[in-house]
Automatic annotation (TrEMBL):
GO cellular component: midbody
Residue span, MITD1 C-terminal phospholipase D-like domain: 75-213
Gene3D superfamilies in the record: MITD, C-terminal phospholipase D-like domain (3.30.870.30), Phosphotransferase system, lactose/cellobiose-type IIA subunit (1.20.58.80)
One biological process term in Gene Ontology: midbody abscission
The protein, known as: MITD1 protein
Organism listed in the record: Dicaeum eximium
Domain named MIT: residues: 2-53
CDD domains named in the record: MIT_C
Pfam families, alphabetized: MIT, MIT_C
Length: 220
């Protein structure tokens, strides 16, 4: 299965479909790594490691994509932005954002991670304290943490007074930087307004999304 996935990655690479090829390379290499761990034959291990090394070289290109979200644009819910990068091998997520204030947005992001197809086990949140609503912020985050634990997901929460940049990272190598962080949606006019529940229908504030990929291959 790993070899077939990497073969597909090469085909996508040749077709200049670089984003899809990087996802396939990562998945194929991860599958081959699992084979190596389960193999006791040293000769086979050596051959598999050589193949992984070759495929890693092929997938070692840099990738950068920029998405511009216009003022009042719709159709940019979290699934639209993130789902293609949340492959089955994603188990750990880092969210760094100094202004996690609209906590329902963070909750919706966590819900997306729980639904899969990724198998997230740990979410790391680094943010700053809300000066005017610190107590309410901590209470809400603790409630989200408890709720996630019911789904087998650990939420680690840390606070920093010096954090500035906004960044979301997945442990399959994808990095997404959003100018406004997760809070790029406009507030709905009311609880019964279109877009209140479905973020794809909610108007956005103007922002820029930068997507990167970095080589993230475990040593064996």
């Amino acid at each position: 299965a790993g070899a077939e996935t990497v073969k597909r990655a090469v085909e996508l690479d040749v077709a200049s479909r670089f984003q899809e090829s990087l996802v396939c390379y990562q998945e194929g290499i991860d599958l081959l790594l699992q084979v190596v761990k389960a193999t006791t034959d040293e000769a086979k291990k050596h051959r598999y490691r050589q193949k992984i090394s070759d495929f890693t070289f092929l997938s070692d290109g840099k990738y950068h994509k920029q998405i511009r979200i216009e003022e009042n644009a719709t159709g940019f819910g979290y699934e639209k932005l993130f789902h293609q990068y949340l492959t089955e091998i994603v188990s750990e997520v880092w969210v760094e954002d100094p202004y996690i204030r609209q906590l329902y947005n963070f909750l919706r992001f966590c819900e997306m991670l729980v639904k899969g197809p990724c198998k997230v086990k740990t979410i790391h949140l680094l943010t700053s304290y809300d000066g005017g609503g610190r107590s309410q912020q901590i209470t809400a985050l603790e409630e989200i943490k408890q709720s996630l634990s019911n789904y087998g997901v650990t939420l680690n929460i840390d606070f920093s007074a010096s954090i500035h940049d906004r960044e979301i990272r997945f442990n399959n190598g994808w990095i997404i930087k959003i100018g406004r962080g997760l809070d790029y949606f406009k507030k709905p006019k009311g609880c019964f307004s279109i877009g209140y529940c479905d973020f794809d229908l909610r108007p956005c504030r103007e922002t820029t999304v930068d997507v990167f990929h970095t080589k993230h291959i475990k040593k064996v």
